[in-house]
Write a structure and sequence with these properties.
Largest interface: A-B, 80 and 78 residues
Number of helices of chain A: 19
Number of helices of chain B: 10
Structural class of chain A: alpha+beta
Strand content of chain A: 15-25%
Strand content of chain B: 5-15%
Order of helices and strands of chain B: HHEHEEHHEHHHHH
Shape of chain A: globular
Oligomer: heterodimer
Radius of gyration of chain B: 25 Å
Largest sheet of chain B: 4 strands, antiparallel
Helix content of chain B: 55-70%
Number of strands of chain B: 4
Structural class of chain B: alpha+beta
Radius of gyration of chain A: 33 Å
């Protein structure tokens, strides 16, 4: 431990850390995209919009930040409809503020913060800057309204078959009176379940809240705040700043489900009827008029779910499909694994859901080397496993279709009853699709479709003033601690300060790499880390001082001091680390945020205090010829040690 | 090195702590009927309003104080003077009574609590409708599961400490650390209840920080005791403990002092929304340091003496 060459390691680690932190300090480019409809406004209106942006610019955004904006004072040309902003510290909070204040001018969902070279290199263009939480920099608040009508129609699908059967019993002249009575009661029961009481709605909203919470937390380590607004049947989601909200909204509103439905029994009367008709069209050379072609066009033009649903309902009418069946499209890739997933043919499935996503859990995507494609395997809940076994034993020989969202992705034949509660879905998935499908199964689908009621950007929930004061306080605190350490331990204090700084820099780089969102609890974790790091150094110096006072040679005293302190520091940090890991595993939100910074902070603290400090200390004592190490403050007298 | 007899006061400090905790909880539950309510835990009314430039936080806070409405005021935007007001559910009857005092011609009839609150604000601060940016009755962010998670966490953490320290040193030190840790948490909770500090996410963070700090402190002190006691099993612990605490005292004072610097800076700096957080943290650091010396060490000594009696 006495060679200068060892210094290369900390320098290398520091260099890497600074590279990772570079996007936070770099000059960045932001594209503020102008809304399309602005160009069709009258000149006067355009002028008002632009001038309101630039008035604020002069007063606020560009005043102290030294940002530049192009084109200045005018609307950009229609071919390149964006303002280019250049500058340092373009935070998502600022971007949100500008978008919010110029809603009619800026198309917030299309804003783009150009990635820096380092982000392109190691992240494929994904952002690599420290994200601050809702409490520290504000963010986006979205209120999502639950659409309960759609929810009931889904419910009706679930019970469709049973209702038909019950009605048959009721109208059956030979049925026994008690059977009729039973059927009647069951019918009222089912009808009652379609009636949504306020209580029921809250229960469904609670479910949706949980799912959204999980979704957002697994997406990246963000700390969303999700609340229910009873008055409006809505869920309020607050998220830390995002430079564009389009992707987040997609995550929030994604109501994709995964479910199993039985296909119509062999010989597939309806499916063949449709296929026959399509073939006839093809033979007449009217490919553009076939339903599947029309449907593909709908999909390619992104006409939306509603249009697709209407199209399929139209088909049901056209071919007189009975009420207990529904027409779906079978989606598959073309001949190569690279081609897009598109509807390829129509199938007719039972309206009744045979097994819903609620019966499946724990899905894992995996690569299937036999078929060169991705597949998803999952576990069934005990209840689901039972259902699945019954389903597969009663319906041998029939096809069981897997419906993802509104796509049928495969419809294997049931050969044997499947027991054991594990199953897999293999289609021609890409990796992305397999991951998404697994997520949908694992997290469950939203029970109710949600529509955006309002979207606003909000300031930091801790209050602007408090944050300014808090940042100042922590900075002053750090500075004072450093001064104090130098005053108290002289050279030792300086070395401790150095390793504390390195500690914080490495920790910041680690957290950035992990896409961590920093919140107040996270900062509390860092404060604790800094406290423990200082503590480690204090323990070491007290030990070295004791060794010196016992009359040992300096280099021996340093080595022994570190050795004596080693286990104390290890014990304290390992215990805290275990507690921290528990918090990560058990806790959520604030507890997790705190624990993540604490755990990584302990790792960096152990490195800097046991390795770096020691390296610096031993180098200065053994190589730089420091013969007299005074680890005493300026005014404390020597006291006799009473040996035990 | 100082030669102080720390363990002399053990019965006094142990009883003092016990009584303080009991007193704190007694006041919390008898006088206030439990911990304070907060939006994060219980839900409530949340409004965001843009106030005229001449109104400040103080105006809002003094108004709520005079009317006995429990509200948390947060400044969202300095430029435009936008405030977020969080009102706990406990103040609903008060709001209803105040709403009824508004002259008939100045108010619209409304049935929901949030509407009434908005009307009250508009009447009081003369706000036009568009200056009330949002108003909702919101549910809790951290629900009841948090208490459950917290207790599970604490118990498992204690279990880990007992196990790890028993392996690394001796059971008596492990036990004393665990008891002192519970003491720190209870003490802080008693304070939160006694002062009716509103539980919130920052407060949870403060509690967790105190937990970590306290574990660290106890282990450092006990490591020294263990080292000094090595091979002196037949001696009374009290002497060893006194010397060990004296030896680590410099380090204890330094560490708690440096940890407190930032926290005190937050309090002095006047960060209104962070005041509770910093206050609880400060208290926690003091209690954590105190309990290592005056709770954990004496407990290990008492345990040691009892055991020696049994085997004597």
């Amino acid at each position: 431990m006495q060679s200068y060459r060892l210094l290369l390691l900390p320098f290398f680690i520091l260099a890497v850390s600074f590279t990772i932190l570079y996007p936070n300090f770099a000059d960045r480019t932001l594209k503020l995209v102008v809304r399309e409809d602005v160009y069709s406004l009258s000149e006067a209106e355009q002028k008002t919009l632009v001038s309101s942006l630039f008035d604020r610019w002069e007063k606020d955004y560009g005043k102290s930040s030294g940002w530049t904006i192009e084109p200045k004072g005018t609307l950009p040309p229609k071919e390149n409809p964006f303002f280019t902003v250049n500058g340092r510290f373009i935070t998502s909070a600022k971007i949100n503020q500008i978008s919010q204040e110029n809603q009619t001018l800026v198309n917030e969902a299309k804003n783009k913060l150009e990635p820096t070279w380092i982000e392109n290199m190691i992240r494929g263009g994904k952002s690599l800057s420290i994200k601050l939480g809702l409490d520290l920099q504000g963010g986006m608040r979205v209120v999502l309204k639950g659409d309960f009508e759609d929810y009931t129609s889904k419910l009706r699908d679930l019970y469709a078959k049973e209702i038909t059967e019950l009605n048959l019993t009721l109208n059956n002249p030979v049925a026994k009176p008690e059977e009729k009575e039973k059927a009647k009661n069951r019918l009222t029961e089912i009808e009652a379940s379609f009636d949504l009481s306020p209580m029921r709605k809250i229960v469904e909203l609670e479910k949706a809240k949980m799912i959204i919470d999980n979704r957002l937390t697994t997406q990246n380590l963000t700390e969303p705040q999700v609340r229910i607004q009873k008055e409006q049947d809505a869920i309020e989601v607050s998220l830390p700043g995002v430079s564009n909200s389009a992707a987040i909204l997609e995550i929030l509103q994604n109501t994709e489900t995964v479910e199993y439905r039985l296909e119509e029994p062999n010989p597939f009367l309806f499916k063949n009827q449709i296929a026959e008709n399509e073939r006839r069209m093809m033979d007449l050379g009217q490919r553009e008029k076939t339903d599947i072609y029309l449907f593909q066009e709908l999909v390619k033009n992104k006409a939306g779910k509603k249009a697709q649903d209407e199209f399929l309902a139209g088909l049901e009418k056209k071919y007189n499909i009975p009420k207990e069946y529904k027409v779906y499209a079978m989606w598959a890739r073309g001949n190569s694994a690279k081609s897009t997933l598109l509807p390829r043919s129509f199938v007719v499935l039972e309206r009744k859901i045979a097994l819903s996503g609620n019966d499946m859990t724990n899905a894992q995507p995996s690569y299937n080397s036999n078929s060169y494609g991705w597949m998803v395997s999952f576990t069934l809940t005990p209840n689901g496993a039972e259902k699945f076994f019954d389903l597969t034993s009663e319906n041998r020989g029939r096809n069981l279709a897997i419906v993802w969202g509104d796509k049928v992705i495969s419809n294997p034949v049931i050969n044997d009853p499947i027991a054991g509660g594990r199953a897999e879905i293999s289609g021609s998935f890409s990796e992305q699709e397999a991951i998404r499908l697994a997520n949908v199964i694992s997290e469950g689908a939203l029970p109710i479709p949600l529509s955006v009621l309002e979207m606003r950007f909000i300031g930091p929930t801790l209050g602007i003033e408090s944050i300014e004061v808090g940042v100042k306080a922590v900075a002053i605190g750090f500075f004072l601690v450093m001064v104090y350490m130098i005053f108290y331990y002289r050279l030792g204090g300086f070395i401790a300060d150095l390793s504390l700084l390195v500690n914080i820099i490495i920790l910041a780089a680690l957290l950035t790499l992990m896409d961590f969102t920093l919140t107040l609890p996270g900062i509390a974790g860092i404060i604790l880390t800094a406290g423990m790091a200082v503590d480690a150094n204090v323990i070491i110096y007290e030990r070295i001082r004791e060794e010196i006072e016992e009359g040992r040679a300096l280099s021996v005293a340093v080595t022994r001091g570190f050795e004596n302190a080693f286990w104390t520091i290890m014990d304290a940090n390992v215990t805290t680390l275990i507690a921290g890991i528990l918090m990560i595993r058990l806790g959520n939100g604030p507890i997790k945020g705190f624990a993540i910074t604490l755990c990584w902070g302990i790792v960096t603290t152990l490195f800097t205090s046991l390795f770096l400090s020691r390296l610096f200390m031993e180098l200065s004592v053994n190589r730089m010829g420091i013969h007299h190490l005074n680890l005493r403050p300026f005014f404390f007298g020597k006291k006799e040690v009473k040996n035990v | 090195m100082y030669n102080i007899n720390f363990t002399k006061y053990k019965y006094f400090t142990l009883s003092f702590s016990f009584l303080a905790i009991v007193f704190g909880f007694a006041v919390t539950f008898s006088k206030y009927g439990g911990f304070a309510h907060s939006l994060d835990f219980n839900g409530g009314l949340r409004t965001v309003v843009e106030l005229p430039k001449d109104k400040t936080r103080t105006d809002l806070e003094s108004y709520f104080q005079s009317k006995k409405i429990e509200a948390v005021v947060i400044l969202l935007e300095k430029e435009k003077n936008i405030f977020q007001l969080d009102v706990g559910l406990g103040s609903l009857p008060t709001i209803e009574a105040l709403y009824k005092e508004i002259p008939e011609d100045k108010r619209e009839s409304s049935t929901s609590a949030i509407d009434r609150f908005v009307q009250l604000l508009r009447f009081e601060f003369n706000l036009p409708k568009e200056k009330v940016l949002s108003a909702d009755q919101v549910g809790a962010v951290v629900g009841g599961e948090l208490t459950e998670v917290g207790i599970t966490l604490l118990l498992t953490t204690l279990g880990i400490i007992l196990l790890y320290l028993s392996i690394r040193s001796q059971f008596k030190f492990a036990l004393a650390s665990a008891i002192a840790l519970v003491h720190d948490i209870l003490m802080t909770l008693a304070l939160i209840g006694f002062l009716q500090i509103k539980p919130s996410v920052p407060i949870i963070a403060a509690l967790l920080t105190l937990l970590g700090y306290s574990i660290n402190d106890k282990i450092v002190v006990f490591d020294r005791i263990r080292e000094n006691a090595h091979g002196k099993d037949n001696l009374a612990l009290s002497n060893i403990i006194n010397v060990s605490i004296a030896q680590t005292l410099g380090r204890t004072i330094n560490t708690s002092f440096t940890t407190m610097i930032s926290v005190v800076a937050i309090i002095v700096g006047g960060a209104a929304e962070l005041y509770d957080f910093a206050f609880v943290l400060l208290f926690g650091v003091i209690v954590g340091t105190y309990s290592s010396i005056y709770i954990a060490a004496p407990i290990s000594e008492i345990y040691d003496r009892l055991r020696k009696k049994r085997f004597a």
